[in-house]
């Protein structure tokens, strides 16, 4: 039932490319839970934030660079997010780090879903998550993350399309056009 989760937080603590690869999962989450507020926690600077900027799949984006901010500041951020009262915290692939799963645990949420990886890198997912999904090495990262809906929530995907989503602004189109024109690659 959609009302089971009022607020979800998706941890997107890897770089911009991995963040982009989670966009099909974010859209599938929004389709499966249309009245749930879906927020994202991003760590890897402006480029990761820009990947999600303007996405209708995300209600709010939080930014905190855990690696640069230090332990006390990072613990305060986790406690602040914990007070926000997320029902569910998701740790999509490829976040196979002990620290990422610990962050999910500290933020709380009665449901914390992530992956159990075939390569053990100290992720301790079963210790910090309430539900784990076994990584399927035969699937692309996008397909593995879509399994979060089918195996994590028992949802049926409403679409089989796994398109990446990047909300480009006019300034991005203008930059690309100028770059192509200056490079001699734009004809006509």
Describe it for me?
The chain has 188 residues and is an alpha/beta fold. It contains nine helices and six strands, in the order E-H-H-E-H-E-H-H-E-H-E-H-E-H-H. Strands 3-2-1-4-5-6 form a six-stranded parallel β-sheet, with helices on both faces. The mean pLDDT is 85.
Rg, rounded, reads 17 Å
Order of helices and strands: EHHEHEHHEHEHEHH
Query: What class, by secondary structure content?
Result: alpha/beta
What spatial order of strands do you see in the largest sheet? 3-2-1-4-5-6
Give the helix tally: 9
Helices and strands in order, then pairings?
Elements: E1 7-12, H1 16-21, H2 23-32, E2 37-42, H3 45-52, E3 60-63, H4 66-69, H5 71-83, E4 88-90, H6 98-107, E5 111-116, H7 125-128, E6 131-134, H8 141-152, H9 170-182
Helix pairs in contact: 2-8, 5-6
Question: Features of this protein?
Answer:
single chain; 188 residues; alpha/beta; 6-stranded parallel beta sheet; 15% strand
Short description:
The chain is α/β, with parallel strands linked by helices and 188 residues long. It has nine helices and six strands. Helix 2 packs parallel to helix 8 and helix 5 packs across helix 6.
